[in-house]
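Board work, copied verbatim: ATP synthase complex subunit 8
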Amino acid sequence: MPQLNPNPWFFIMMISWLTYSMIIQPKLLAFVSTNPPSNKPLPTTATTPWTWPWT
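↓ predict structure ↓
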């Protein structure tokens, strides 16, 4: 069964992960977000409980 032979597929997987970790990942990590998250607190809104007519 050729599916069980890991020899060619292991090499392809290792080359893929090396490509990802050496080339693509640094480019993605160097990306600067144009909309950074802010630390300002969210405003709290006062809510009134709903009065159900059947209770």
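The chain has a mean pLDDT of 82.
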